[in-house]
């Protein structure tokens, strides 16, 4: 599973499925990007956990990754916008659990 943070404006759209992707700028010092490169090469995708705001505790949601694309130093990580996991329903923006 790969973890990223998202600002509230994007988080709600991502969680509810109207924006079923996140775009990240390549950071060669961050091992998460090695994992994304591996997903592109093998076409084997895992899960993504998107955390609200600046920490990796508290509010988050999780989805199965359906595609990872790379373009001009950007990674585009996509998931099924209709997929609901962890008991989330449309409008449930307060899902909270500890990161294990």
Question: How would you sum up this structure, described in words?
Answer:
By secondary structure, the chain is an alpha+beta fold. It is 21% helix and 38% strand. The protein has 2 helices and 6 strands. Strands 1, 2, 3, 4, 5 and 6 form a 6-stranded mixed β-sheet that branches. The longest helix has 12 residues, at 31-42. The radius of gyration is 13 Å and the shape is globular. Residues 87-100 have low confidence and may be disordered.
Assign an overall shape. Answer: globular
Number of helical runs? Answer: 2
SSE order, as H and E?
EHEHEEEE
Helix content: 10-25%
Q: Which secondary-structure class do the elements indicate?
A: alpha+beta
Number of strands: 6
Give the end-to-end Cα distance, rounded to a whole number of Å: 11 Å
Mean pLDDT score: 84
- Gyration radius (Cα, Å) is 13 Å
How would you sum up the major sheet? 6 strands, mixed
Low-confidence stretches: 87-100
Query: What percentage of the residues does DSSP assign to strands (E)?
Result: 35-45%
How would you concisely characterize the structure shown here?
The protein has 100 residues and is an alpha+beta fold. The chain has helices at 8-16, 31-42, and strands at residues 2-6, 21-25, 47-52, 58-71, 74-79, 96-97.
Blueprint of the fold:
Elements lengths: L1 E5 L1 H9 L4 E5 L5 H12 L4 E6 L5 E14 L2 E6 L16 E2 L3
Parallel strand pairs: 1-3
Antiparallel strand pairs: 2-5, 3-4, 4-5, 4-6
């Amino acid at each position: 599973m790969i973890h990223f943070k998202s600002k509230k404006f994007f988080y709600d759209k991502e969680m509810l499925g109207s924006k079923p992707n996140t775009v990240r700028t390549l950071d060669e010092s961050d091992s998460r990007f090695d994992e994304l490169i591996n997903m592109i090469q093998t076409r084997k995708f895992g899960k993504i956990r998107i955390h609200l705001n600046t920490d990796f505790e508290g509010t988050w949601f999780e989805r199965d990754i359906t595609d990872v694309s790379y373009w001009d130093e950007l990674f585009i990580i996509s998931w099924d916008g209709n997929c609901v996991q962890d008991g989330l329903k449309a409008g449930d923006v307060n899902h909270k659990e500890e990161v294990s």
